[in-house]
Amino acid sequence: MPDKKCNENEQNDCVMPVRSANPIRARSLIRDNLEKQAGCLNLIHSRMPNIKVFSGTSHPDLAQRIVDRLGIDLGKVVTKKFSNLETCVEIGESVRGEDVYIVQSGSGEINDNLMELLIMINACKIASASRVTAVIPCFPYARQDKKDKANAQSRAPISAKLVANMLSVAGADHIITMDLHASQIQGFFDIPVDNLYAEPAVLKWIKENIPEWKNSIIVSPDAGGAKRVTSIADRLNVEFALIHKERKKANEVASMVLVGDVKDKIAILVDDMADTCGTIVHAADRLVEAGATKVYAILTHGIFSGPAISRINNACFEAVVVTNTIPQDGHMRDCPKIQCIDVSMMFAEAVRRTHNGESVSYLFSNVPY
Q1: What DSSP character marks residue 179?
Q2: Who is most buried in 1, 20, 73, 99, counting CB within 10 A?
Q3: Once rounded to an integer, what is the mean pLDDT over residues 196-224?
Q4: What is the pLDDT of residue 15?
Q5: Buried b or exposed e, range 287-316, using 16+ CB within 10 angstroms
């Protein structure tokens, strides 16, 4: 219950003492007192909006898992396209005074899905929703978060900042996402951002599915992920290594240098996302050359575009493990090496805690059961 009180007059009425020599008068005063107390409680409850969760078209399965975990029904929404491919969204139930959560991931047809999310946010906001939270498991355009040193004079855009501005202008009051490509993206927003981590779920998977995990080494396929792998290595009490890569251009790796000793160990590659999978496949080959006995890859966002699936099928991985921030059913059918960790319970718990005004920091190091 929110920490709200009646105004001074109401509060005095709520605690009015009952003093009367006349028993009938006393009973009347008691009844009036109880009615006023009930009125106070109803006033408090009416200020706490109910929760509504809506799903975009990018990942309805994840949204359904979230509401199943919360024990509520998915909100009614109709999304369609006009003949000129404009997106139209109709919210099918009242959201006036409600605490609204919209689940939409940055996958598939990213531009259409982003536009759909913006329209849904705006539709709920102008329909008098109390608060609108965008639940974006995989944040779109997260890799365009800065001007690269090599391209500093190329007038490249910082598209992640543009997306942040668009979400804010559409009317989002809060963002919940997972494993941003760069944590600094949170600073692009002037609204609260909860960046959840897949790390607790990854640790749980490693301990349950790799019997010899104590003889493993956690490897980052690039220097940018060093902080991520050192955190996991510390939690597992194992060593870590990293691979320094140089790119000639986007999606093409020129050279790789391994820093660390992986000989006779199980190498576990950890990264936040894999797109065409050129990096992790080259990294796996490099690790096998350096003497690793087995190679696993654990990735938060498995985008798997272009030749990614065929590359994984032909690579030396024992397993490529991803979370379901992006739909993976089709990828798992095409590639038996791909396994999926369900993170819906983490998003559901974040939604529940946000709605109830509780801290979400517990989720940074624990998996809710």
Answers
A1: S
A2: 99
A3: 93
A4: 42
A5: bbebebbbbbbbbbbbbbeeebbebbeebe
